[in-house]
């Protein structure tokens, strides 16, 4: 940026942002993330009151949390801060959560590892397995890409 500044050039090289390279994909990712946030009130409707940590495993650098319920749908967000991906990973759900028994289906609705954002696309979840015990969901079994964020929509009854 300093070179561009010293030579009177724009601070942003717009040709990079407009290309289909990683720069353009990053710009598309940010735009899609902003739209996604706006169209899902679970993320902003009740502020931090609807934030609940559900999983943390430090050795694998994976954390997960819930965000609100809207129209019988709740979001589960999973972050993998490691450069290791998993084709099958179990996210244990907290037994004290009163809505666990209401989970009917879980669908991946956002994956930052998508090829359209420059990701590998190798860790897409067509079907997320819900492991039940005594009619309560206790585990989500799914693929988790490296250095990525997944958003799952839990459909509740």
Automatic annotation (TrEMBL):
Listed Gene3D superfamilies: Golgi alpha-mannosidase II
One term of GO molecular function: catalytic activity
Coiled-coil spans in chain: none
BP terms from Gene Ontology: carbohydrate metabolic process
Transmembrane segment boundaries: none
InterPro entries: A-amylase/branching_C, Glyco_hydro_b
Domain Alpha-amylase/branching enzyme C-terminal all beta intervals: 60-153
Name of the molecule in the record: Alpha-amylase/branching enzyme C-terminal all beta domain-containing protein
Organism, scientific name: Adineta steineri
The organism's taxonomic lineage, starting at the top: Eukaryota, Metazoa, Spiralia, Gnathifera, Rotifera
């Amino acid at each position: 940026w300093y070179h561009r500044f010293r030579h009177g050039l724009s601070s942003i090289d717009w040709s990079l942002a407009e290309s289909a390279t990683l720069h353009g994909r990053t710009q598309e990712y940010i735009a899609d993330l902003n739209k996604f946030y706006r169209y899902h009130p679970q993320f902003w409707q009740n502020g931090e009151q609807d934030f609940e940590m559900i999983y943390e495993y430090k050795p694998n650098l994976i954390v997960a949390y819930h965000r609100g319920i809207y129209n019988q749908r709740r979001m589960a967000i999973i972050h993998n801060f490691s450069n290791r991906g998993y084709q099958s990973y179990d996210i244990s759900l907290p037994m004290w959560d009163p809505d666990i028994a209401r989970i009917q289906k879980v669908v991946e609705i956002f994956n930052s590892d998508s090829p359209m954002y420059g990701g590998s696309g190798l860790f897409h979840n067509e079907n997320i397995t819900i492991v039940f015990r005594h009619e309560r969901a206790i585990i989500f079994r799914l693929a988790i890409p490296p250095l990525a964020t997944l958003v799952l929509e839990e459909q509740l009854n």
